[in-house]
Amino acid sequence: MTVITNHMPTAELQALDAAHHMHPFTANGELSQKGARIITRADGVHLTDSEGHQILDAMAGLWCVNIGYGRDELAEVAARQMRELPYYNTFFQTTHVPAIALAAKIAELAPGDLNNVFFAGSGSEANDTNIRMVRHYWALKGKPTKSVIISRKNAYHGSSVGSGSLGGMSGMHAQGGMPIPDIHHINQPNWWAEGGDMPAEEFGLQRARELEEAILELGEDRVAAFIAEPVQGAGGVIVPPDSYWPEIQRICDKYEILLIADEVICGFGRTGNWFGSETLNIRPDIMTIAKGLSSGYAPIGGSIVSDEVASVIAGDEFNHGYTYSGHPVASAVALENLRIMEEENILGHVRDVAAPYLKEKWEALIDHPLVGEAKIVGMMGSIALTPNKEARAAFASDAGTVGYICRERCFANNLVMRHVGDRMIISPPLVITPEQIDVLIERAAKSLDECYSELKAQDLLHSA
Ligand SMILES: *Cc1c(COP(=O)(O)O)cnc(C)c1O
Question: What is d(CA 196, CA 205) in angstroms, rounded to the nearest whole number?
Fold first, then answer.
């Protein structure tokens, strides 16, 4: 077989990719016609592709490279750990230092009595753990009928059968037999798209009260938990009205429903605190973590579990786990990532420098004729593209048509900004500097201008 390297011509690499590599969340037939973009290396906030373009990665990979690319310390720790103990499991009454150290560190960083960590290889796996853990918790407490988990439409909780069922992505549910039984979805707090004439705060309350209605309808004795992202990420960085979370917390407390905060994106600094639950003032019983835990340098996720839930689960053998739960190399890398975040005060950089600067620049995009809403929490932001801001109108074209055009303009301008339908979203590395934010905004504005011209040329500036 030929040795395949970065130095091969792009077209050859693309042909091999098309021939053998099935991409996630991709129409592979269409992609193989076009050829995938090949990323060859990365440093700081920049990617380099096989054509030599320097691209500003305003998505931090997939919301994960929080400390930026190219940190040698993580590579060194991984190599050291591979030499010392590349693998051992944590199933049969054994453990190892990286898992011990990482669990202890996470317990120290997590708020309240969230002192217990069940490791997984990804966010999807961790949410699968959560489904089984909350149901088993209630069974152990003598309430086995409490098995329904309430989630939200347009939520993203992963792509396995369990976590994809928790998620509220209709396109995913349409394929492969999801959702599994006993998952119930309520509406999302997306005021811009769904709030109609209602003031945002009133709408937030109304959407939160759908949780109470669902509990009463299903019966309190049937409901195990509610799961939500503090700020919806993959759904389009949907920032809930301020009224939303306090009401959700009140309802969970009143009916003694376990609250699972999916912190896979919001965790580890993205919102300016260690966890989004702190920023949004939520007191979860379980938090899902992954992504920023290792800054994406190694695949690792987990569930941070309250003392109360963990002590009940400890009363029985929990017949659940993954070969790579607490993988020593991934754990060592995550631990080093957290050390760097603390020692370099990356949260301080977010809070005092990057987030306030980005907020000012990002919110100013509202002046662009295409932008109907500009939202940002910490280092995750979104803009809604619209043909008519006053009416908060959607485009007449299929959702995502305009977003895709805008995303293509961004790529052409060496900026990775993602589209979700016709919303554009960013989630840059937390270490981004004000100078780099200027470049991000400049390229975003230029891409919006070019998108606007293209929409006019294609006669797409029509409201639904
Ligand atoms: C990415 C994501 C997941 C899934 O994590 P994977 O590591 O891709 O399995 C779960 N929840 C949220 C909120 C996410 O953004």
Answer: 14
- Examine residue 27 and state whether it is found in any structural domain, yes or no: no
Best substitution site from 62, 65, 124 to test ligand 1's pocket, by max atoms within 8 Å of Cβ?
124
Residues 297 and 397 in one domain: no
In the reported structure, the alpha carbon of residue 427 is separated from the centroid of ligand 1 by a whole-number distance in angstroms of 14
CA dihedral angle for residue 307, residue 308, residue 310, residue 311, rounded to 10 degrees: 100
Same domain, 96 and 240: yes
108/176 same-domain check: yes
- Number of domains the chain contains: 2
For a mutational test of ligand 1's pocket, the pick from 62, 122, 286, 294, i.e. the residue with the most ligand atoms closer than 8 A to its C-beta, is: 122
Three-class DSSP category at 148: strand
Which atom of ligand 1 sits closest to the CA of residue 160?
A: 9
Q: What is the pLDDT along the chain (464 residues), one digit of tens a residue?
A: 678 888 899 999 999 999 999 999 999 999 999 999 999 999 999 999 999 999 999 999 999 999 999 999 999 999 999 999 999 999 999 999 999 999 999 999 999 999 999 999 999 999 999 999 999 999 999 999 999 999 999 999 999 999 999 999 999 999 999 999 999 999 999 999 999 999 999 999 999 999 999 999 999 999 999 999 999 999 999 999 999 999 999 999 999 999 999 999 999 999 999 999 999 999 999 999 999 999 999 999 999 999 999 999 999 999 999 999 999 999 999 999 999 999 999 999 999 999 999 999 999 999 999 999 999 999 999 999 999 999 999 999 999 999 999 999 999 999 999 999 999 999 999 999 999 999 999 999 999 999 999 999 999 999 99
Q: 174 and 255 share a domain?
A: yes
Q: Same domain for 316 and 363?
A: no
Instruction: Give ligand 1 pocket residues (Cβ under 6 A).
Output: 122-124, 127, 156-158, 229, 233-234, 262, 264-265, 290-291, 301
Q: Residue 244 C-alpha to ligand 1 middle, in angstroms?
A: 22
Quote the CA–CA distance of 255 and 252 in Å, as a whole number. Answer: 6
What CATH number has the domain bearing residue 53? 3.90.1150.10
Domain of 429 in residue numbering reads as 37-67+345-457
Burial of 450 (C-beta count, 10 Å sphere; 0-12/13-18/19+): middle
Residue 464 lies in a domain: no
